[in-house]
Amino acid sequence: MMMRSALRLLSPFGPRARLSVLIFHRVLPQPDPLFPDEMHAERFDQICGWLKDWFNVLPLDVAVNQLRYGNLPDRACCITFDDGYADNLEIATPILRKHGLSSTFFIATGFLDGGRMWNDTLIEAIRHCRAETLTLEGLGEFALGSIAQRRQALSALIGKIKYLPLEERRELTEKIAAAAGVEPAKDLMMGADGVRALRAAGMQVGAHTVTHPILARLTLDQAREEIRESQVFLQDLLQERVGLFAYPNGKPGTDYLPEHVGLARELGFDAAVSTSWGAADSRTDSFQIPRFTPWDQKRTAFGMRMIRNLF
What we know:
By secondary structure, the protein is α/β, with parallel strands linked by helices.
């Protein structure tokens, strides 16, 4: 009750309303030793229970529209997922439905039906490499004798690769997988039928580009095509308008620029989301809605983190 009261005070009904938007990526069936902080089914179920108790959880398009017109309910919150992992449908959606909650799933359409994101190629390569040391030309030598060392290797490699040109990232991570002697899984992302199933389950679907590029590293024409083609693909697939967009990586000024905000408007979206922390209010640009997810595993700490995010 105290948590709800605090949230109501900081996120009231009407013109002074604040909108909290949470971002997730994967929900694994079990905890992952390599990434102990990665979301898994038991923890996501717990979080959904807390959100149900404390917040008015709304579909993102409804919430943004109500915020715009000054009639957002108190304690307003939205749940979102990025990228289009298969576990979003298989694990996250049944948990959401169990709690009577909705979510918006932003899909990078180029990875549907057997595709794989570059970071997952890298993670799978390091996770399953049988050698205790991996030497990579131009990148260095990495000890893999323990879980902690594999985690350190991944952190270092992701930092080296993340902002390379798109095709260079893909080719390099495939070479790393080959050097590690690993054939990465091809079923990490959902298929087109999975996207339809998400929508049929009452969830929202938004666009997230085709190949998940760093938009700030593309020409404006390339960025336009990435955004437009993902929107058109999803509209054709679902036979309905797609009005929500998420910027890949989503850091303002680093991953996307003002001109990409203009593209989202130009292409007819209703709203777009970033990964900048904070909560939206009536002054927030609807095409730069902030998102945040507390990492705390205890109920009270999680709730307090949500409260601090409202400041």
